[in-house]
Amino acid sequence: MSITIKDVEHVANLARLELSDAEKEQFSGQLNAILKYAEKLNGLNTDGVEPTTHVLPLANVMREDTVKASWPIEKVLLNAPEEENGQFKVPAVLE
């Protein structure tokens, strides 16, 4: 598979980029070099290799959920720019 000038023009159009002829030529060459390099991976023996999303084992470091009392509404609304009936009052976004 190779990237043609037409492919570069198509992607540039989708990205709303205006490229000169020299840039189109340059990018098609660079993209083809990237694809050629990536093709080397097809030669690797991956039998017995488990699929992974990360090279290192990761684990969440989240704490356990614990139930506790909420802040009193008066304290929550102390820094509210505006409050109405125990709720934050915000400007209307729909008419």
UniProtKB/TrEMBL annotation:
PANTHER family: GLUTAMYL-TRNA(GLN) AMIDOTRANSFERASE SUBUNIT C, MITOCHONDRIAL (PTHR15004). Pfam families: GatC (PF02686). Keywords: ATP-binding, Ligase, Nucleotide-binding, Protein biosynthesis. Gene3D superfamilies: Glu-tRNAGln amidotransferase C subunit, N-terminal domain. Belongs to the GatC family. Allows the formation of correctly charged Asn-tRNA(Asn) or Gln-tRNA(Gln) through the transamidation of misacylated Asp-tRNA(Asn) or Glu-tRNA(Gln) in organisms which lack either or both of asparaginyl-tRNA or glutaminyl-tRNA synthetases. The reaction takes place in the presence of glutamine and ATP through an activated phospho-Asp-tRNA(Asn) or phospho-Glu-tRNA(Gln). Heterotrimer of A, B and C subunits. The keyword Ligase applies. The keyword Lipid biosynthesis does not apply. Coiled coil: none annotated. InterPro entries: Asp/Glu-ADT_sf_sub_c, GatC. Its EC number is 6.3.5.-. It is an enzyme of class 6 (ligase). It catalyses: L-glutamyl-tRNA(Gln) + L-glutamine + ATP + H2O = L-glutaminyl-tRNA(Gln) + L-glutamate + ADP + phosphate + H(+); L-aspartyl-tRNA(Asn) + L-glutamine + ATP + H2O = L-asparaginyl-tRNA(Asn) + L-glutamate + ADP + phosphate + 2 H(+). It comes from Cohnella soli. This is Aspartyl/glutamyl-tRNA(Asn/Gln) amidotransferase subunit C.
